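Protocol step 4 of 6: record predicted structures for both targets in the notebook before any analysis. Target 1:
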Amino acid sequence: MDTDDIAPPPQRPTGFLDIARLSVGELREYRNSLEAEVARVDDAIKAKQASVNAAAAFFKK
């Protein structure tokens, strides 16, 4: 197996943003981006759960 063709795992955030230095407007933008990310994660969870449920229903027969 050639490991050069395998993409590295995505990088995860290593820490939190220092929000003490942000303005009110920047804090609102940051919060909006976090809420958008939470919505994206929720959508991914729903999609994966639907796949799990479909597989369970298929193999239950």
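Target 2:
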Amino acid sequence: MMISLALSESIGIYGLVLFFLGDSLRTLYTFIGISALAIIYHRPKREELETLALAMQREGGPAPKL
């Protein structure tokens, strides 16, 4: 889950780097748009968060409130 979100965010960062290196605004907006769509697609699902909260609670760690 975290790796896919980090990779999705890196797409937007690559677009920003290309823009700073002299590419057009169109490239920046394209990469940021693709990054936003990937982040929305790979967002954590409620079931995944509940499973993580239960696992943390079983291990004795602080369980986040959902």
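Step 5 preliminary note on target 2. Residues 2-20 form the longest helix (19 residues). Helices lie at 2-20, 25-41, 46-58.
Proceed to step 6 after PI sign-off.
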